[in-house]
Write a structure and sequence with these properties.
mainly alpha; Farnesyl Diphosphate Synthase; 16 helices; 1% strand; isoprene biosynthesis; magnesium; metal-binding
């Protein structure tokens, strides 16, 4: 398969998965109650929908769906798992934007949740999305095998929690207050947790749903780790040189706030080289896993990660 054809297929699949994710999220975030729920407060649900719907590339759901698809796994259950992951991601964005954290007014080209509603509602909307994500991933419609659902639940908890995304955010905040230079090793660790953990989960969850063997799982884990690292370095570069209108959020804030980034640790040119090398590392992992042409769209996802403008 040529790179041009793979690029066209990737673009079409990215849009298709984003639309399917949006539709499934919309169906999940409806006013009707589930068994055990008392009611769904209208304003809270509106804020959750505002934070989760209507924007974003949905790269994490895409990676989960496409990785599961390598093994023939598809359908509503796969989309539910992908939406659970996306709800965790959206909760993290809502909380990251709060004044106590990154203090951003703009997300995806529109006011952040705490600006569109208020800070208390934004906190609760994030809480609601996080807990509902585990409701969705643990529920029977997501996968017929309770063992698979238990594995996915544990994997997501560890990717999102103390040793993953939340821990990475804590390290990020600590780094802002530090007067010492941020080392490459510290930045890589922090970014592997704050950003990389959920991207890696997307790939490993797709492999678990699809029933990948040990060799395939190991190769896909290498792919997910490299892609996650490349994604964050690309974000660092975009913040340093990107256009605010294209980004849909404030540019240049990393340097202003002493953020721990590879641009700060290595310089812009070396960060670009590191970004591109990580993308090639991800593509090589797919080749080493023996996936061949069936993984062309996942390879293109790595190229997209470093070429994107937002």
């Amino acid at each position: 398969m040529s790179v041009q054809i793979a690029n066209q297929d990737f673009a079409a699949r990215l849009v298709a998965v984003a639309e399917a994710t949006e539709s499934t999220l919309d169906a999940l975030l409806q006013p009707h109650r589930l068994k055990g729920e008392r009611t769904r407060p209208e304003r809270l649900l509106e804020a959750m929908r505002y934070g989760a719907l209507g924007g974003g590339k949905r790269l994490r759901p895409f990676l989960l769906v496409e990785t599961a698809g390598l093994f023939g796994a598809q359908g509503d259950g796969v989309l539910r798992a992908a939406c659970a992951l996306e709800m965790v991601h959206c909760y993290s964005l809502i909380h990251d934007d709060l004044p106590a954290m990154d203090d951003d007014d703009l997300r995806r080209g529109r006011p952040t949740v705490h600006k569109a509603f208020d800070e208390a509602t934004a906190i609760l909307a994030g809480d609601g999305l996080l807990t509902f994500a585990f409701d969705v991933i643990a529920d029977a419609p997501t996968h017929p095998d309770a063992g698979v659902r238990a594995d996915l639940t544990l994997m997501l908890a560890r990717a999102a929690g103390l040793g993953g995304m939340v821990g990475g955010q804590a390290l990020d905040l600590e780094a802002e207050a530090s007067k010492a230079p941020h080392t490459r090793e510290f930045v890589a660790l922090m970014q592997s947790m704050k950003t990389g953990a959920l991207l890696l989960f997307a790939v490993e969850a797709g492999a678990r749903i699809g029933g990948a063997d040990a060799k395939q799982t190991a190769a896909l884990s290498r792919y997910g780790s490299a892609l996650g690292a490349a994604f964050q370095v690309a974000d660092d570069v975009l913040d340093a040189e990107g256009d605010e209108q294209a980004l849909g959020k404030r540019a240049g804030k990393d340097a202003d706030r002493n953020k721990a980034t590879l641009v700060a640790a290595l310089g812009l040119e070396e960060a670009r080289r590191r970004r591109d090398a990580l993308a090639e590392e991800a593509i090589q992992a797919l080749a080493d896993g023996g996936f061949g042409a069936s993984a062309a769209i996942l390879a293109e996802a790595a190229r997209f990660t470093v070429a994107r403008k937002s």
